[in-house]
Amino acid sequence: MDVSSVIMAASTSIVAGMSALHLYDLFRHVNAKNKIPPESFGDRLEKLTSGLRSASRQVDSVLGEIAQVAKDREETVQKLESDLAMLKDREKELKGNIDALEKTPLPAAEYFARLLESKEKRSAKRDYFLFGAGVITSAVVTIIIQWIVAG
Questions:
Q1: In the chain, which residue ranges form alpha helices assigned H by DSSP?
Q2: In a 10 Å sphere around its CB, with 0-12 CB exposed, 13-18 middle and 19+ buried, how is residue 28 labelled?
Q3: 104 by DSSP, 3-state: which?
Q4: For the chain, how far is it from start to end, CA to CA, in angstroms?
Q5: Would you list the domain boundaries of the chain?
Q6: Spatial separation of the C-alpha atoms in residues 10 and 13, rounded to whole Å
Q7: What is the pLDDT of residues 18-77, one digit of tens each?
């Protein structure tokens, strides 16, 4: 090996070592600037406590809504139960009426039907009479008013 090769190798080694040292310092400097300082225990505890308070408020809100929905459903169920009881009573009443009607002899039912029919005819005659009387009274009042105004 000749001396020039050794000098070249030593020079290259020195330049490479110096470059590596400068690069290492540069990376360390950049990392030191970008590095976030560690939080103190008190700061971390305060953040966690704040998050816990917020979550607790949200849970309280959700529980309140759930309680309101449960109360509304309970009221609805109670209303439905009372309506059902009322309908059962009405059903019993109507079944009693049906049973009574089924036990009524046919000639009696026909007699009641004829009585109601004659009342309906009399009622219709009365309605026509009242309508006609209203028309005549209205016409007479109109004539009298016109005679008073014109006179």
A1: 3-34, 41-103, 106-150
A2: exposed
A3: coil
A4: 155
A5: 51-103, 117-151
A6: 5
A7: 787 777 777 777 766 666 666 787 888 888 889 889 988 998 898 899 999 999 999 999
